[in-house]
## 1
Amino acid sequence: MSAELKPCPFCASNNLSISYRGQPARDFFIGCNSCGACGPAVPSANPAGGAYNPETVPSWNRRPTVYQDGENAATSSADNQGERG
Ligand SMILES: [Zn+2]
């Protein structure tokens, strides 16, 4: 079962890749190759298991998107009208 990556919440790009930080790779996160946005880093309990912490993708997908209005939009709907056709 491979989780699917949602597009970048900032630029809607699908050009995403998994990155990590830490000397022994430890914290894994999704990065956008188009705008450079990064998802939250998720510590891997099993660094030797490679760059695919099962929590990495869900944590990226969980991010609120800013290009869509709706469920996660923080802006008030009052001054956000007329943006969509
Ligand atoms: Zn992006």
Note: Residues 22-68 form one domain.
## 2
Amino acid sequence: MADHNFDLVVLGGGSAGYAAAIRAKQLGQTVALVEKDKLGGTCLHRGCVPTKAILHAGEVADAVEDGARLGVNLKLEGIDGAKIAAFRDGIVSGKFKGLQGLLKAKKIDVFAGEGRLVDAKTVQVGDDKLIAKNVVLATGSFSRSIPGLEITGNVITSDQALLMDWVPQRAVVLGGGVIGLEFASLWRALGAEVTIIEGLPHLAPAEDEAISKALERAYKKRGINFQLSTKFESVTQDEYGVHVKTDKGGETIDGDVLLVAIGRGPVTQNIGLEEVGVETDRGFVLVNDKLETNVPGVYAIGDITPGLQLAHRSFQHGIFVAEQIAGQSPVLVEDKNVPKVTYCEPQVASVGLSEKKAAEEYGADNITAYEYNLAGNAKSSILGTAGFVKAIRVNDGPVVGIHMIGARVGELVGEAQLIVNWDAYPEDVAQLVHAHPTQVETIGEAMMALAGRPLHAI
Ligand SMILES: Cc1cc2nc3c(=O)[nH]c(=O)nc-3n(C[C@H](O)[C@H](O)[C@H](O)COP(=O)(O)OP(=O)(O)OC[C@H]3O[C@@H](n4cnc5c(N)ncnc54)[C@H](O)[C@@H]3O)c2cc1C
């Protein structure tokens, strides 16, 4: 049994945890980072990075089909699932090596093993006791299922889907949120018949309703089936695949796989929270606006805290908490102003309040919403994409929400989040110049329209 003393111990080496460790080290703290599996966590190994790698394969397959529109006649000769998997794994392992090198270069002490809080200042990992002035909990999240729905065989979550080296011919996707939409889009692009089952009335239910409806039209056009306001009832498996029943009755929905994508729960069991008295709600660790738990000196960051589960929010949490502990006065961007991107085709990206939420917060008569159609944007026409940018302002006040749908709009969310987070007025942005022809002009056009001086719009 060895005791080690640090300024800070971080439990969990995912996006949130390693960001906290790096920033704390930069600020002169001694830091221990505890990881039981692989540094980089969900995002690098089972989330953002592998999904986006395989989604790129889907984009390339779509481009082959799009070629004929502009006179580039291509033929899709086949999809090599094993090679796509190798591409995915190559990207992940390259980034993993990079991260390990980064943490080594920054001389962060990494402890490999399962850690547990034994008191407010001590994390135990095997025979090592890591004692610190402050402890940061960053143990992340896991793919949830519903009671009675066992993840086994061809009933899978994103964890198993990201290990597949083959493409299903028929896929049933339970859940029309970000993860479900991305896999549905990918598998469709690679030739699968896809059916999404969503319990709520819309796909992408966390987005502005106009975006959800536009996405539904786009998915219908792509031949992606979906059943809304529909509850999963049961699934059976046999040598022909999975057979899913819903509360709508009728025929079973058959597939090679059933992807369960109904959300993620916090990894907070058996890490010592009860013993130390850290307050939780349905497993999520409760924190104040400084990410402090109810136990002095114990912080929680990333997916184990209630709210958006996104890697860039986790990075922000990590940086914030390190600066807070080092005595600085960092600013925490509220969840509502954290940008969100769904990397399906067409992409969905947003930041700030939906029209409904803005109306609730400011009053329906005190806001103005404007939709700029991508049809008016030359670059979008070249790409052959439909969609729009919807911006919401407070009358005589700032822009409080920007919501976008269309190919590549994820890249536009950078400017959108500056506008919303800097409380910019449309008049401020309308006088700035957007390069032509780019898709980001659509944000400029929406701002010009909201400022009462539309250019390429009626
Ligand atoms: C399929 C999928 C796609 C996604 N795509 C995106 C995307 O495109 N963009 C985006 O922003 N987000 C995306 N996400 C979400 C993103 O991955 C998470 O929000 C992010 O990884 C959360 O970071 P975290 O550090 O809080 O948790 P995690 O990344 O889960 O890291 C927690 C770490 O703690 C370790 N750990 C747990 N318990 C212990 C213990 N007792 N001792 C030691 N170590 C422990 C775990 O092994 C893990 O490495 C995606 C998620 C999934 C599943």
Note: The CA atoms of residues 339 and 414 lie 8 Å apart.
